[in-house]
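User: Some background: our group keeps a shared notebook of sequences we're curious about, and every so often someone picks one and asks for a predicted structure to add to the entry. Today it's my turn. The entry only has the sequence so far, pasted here. Could you supply the structure so I can complete it?
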Amino acid sequence: MTEKIVNYEILSNKPLTDSVFEMVLRGDTSLFMKPGQFVNLQLPNLYLRRPISVCEYDDKTITITYKVVGKGTKKLSEMREGKINTLVGLGNGYELNITASEVLVVGGGVGIPPLVQLCKELRKMDKRVHVILGFNTKDEVFYEDKFKQLGCEVDVCTVDGSYGYQGMVDAVIKEKNLEHLQYFTCGPLPMMKAIYKLSTSAGQLSLEERMGCGFGACMGCSIETKIGPKRVCKEGPVFTSEVLLWND
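Assistant: Of course. Here's the predicted structure to add to the notebook entry:
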């Protein structure tokens, strides 16, 4: 895939929770081929670009959903108009050449956004999609209705029990007897490792590592796999469960 720069126009930028924002950008979307890809944003007066996963895309717009955790995302949350210099054509997303009629999709916190486009594509394929969303507390919950509107079967859990099931996503998987389903996931590493160890089926997992370039040149986001070192920004961020070294 070839990377290129697109100057996206900001159409909207609104809060979903106290710290999570949703931004819609208009411009060339031709290089978005799979759910799970990401963009690298150049923000004013900051040297390094900020990698952000893509929540949704169509033929004119992309939506990014991000959490304010530092000066880069803080600056991004304050932008209401203008254009953003964006490196696109990045990342290897989720593969959709699956034969199973029923699948499991699990997201945690800000790992949830890229699963929206994934579920759109799965529902277009007439798959039955079980979605489990994990948060710390009720105040952090977002996109539950979005997944329901797509026709997914949605369960929400919170660590403190203030909304939905109390506890972690793996407990819901066990209670619903969903361990046998082919799965797709994105979120905190402990959450994904728990799903990986619990599941009796193959899965696709979107990993997160600190990135320098975002397109495979600096090797800064490399991880070890069963088939050798792989770059999260280039060969990933989505990897199959078969290649991960998470059995220990």
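Suggested note for the entry: The chain has a mean pLDDT of 93. The chain has two domains: 4-90, 102-206.
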